[in-house]
Write a structure and sequence with these properties.
Structural class: mainly alpha
Helix content: 55-70%
Strand content: under 5%
Number of strands: 0
Number of helices: 1
Order of helices and strands: H
Distance between the termini: 106 Å
Radius of gyration: 34 Å
Length: 107
């Protein structure tokens, strides 16, 4: 049931010669994007290829930012753990000093 001119078999593969897509009557009003103007098709293709070439660079930049953020979070966690450990050590030393003072006063 594939007649020429369908999505599976278009009459032409050149986007400038194809008829613009019409919104479906089942779609709500305003949900479809506006029709594409093909006057700047070559410019948009050029921009698209430039953007496609820059995708790996943007992906690598995002990956590095994510790794830097994770490293900073790890350093922050390590600082908090160290601070808690030092606080417990100081509390134990304070208790020892208080006990020693109490023992000195009692004798």
């Amino acid at each position: 049931m594939n007649a020429p001119g369908t999505i599976d078999h278009p009459l032409t593969h050149d986007p400038q010669k194809q008829a613009p897509m019409q919104p479906s009557p089942r779609e709500p009003q305003g949900s479809a994007t506006p029709d594409v103007n093909t006057t700047g098709a070559n410019d948009s293709r050029q921009n698209r290829t430039r953007e496609m070439q820059l995708i790996p660079e943007a992906l690598a930049r995002a990956h590095m930012e994510n790794r830097l953020r994770e490293a900073e979070d790890g350093r922050r966690v390590a600082r908090v753990v160290t601070a808690r450990r030092m606080q417990r050590r100081a509390e134990r030393a304070s208790l020892r000093a208080r006990r020693a003072l109490a023992m000195a006063v009692m004798h």
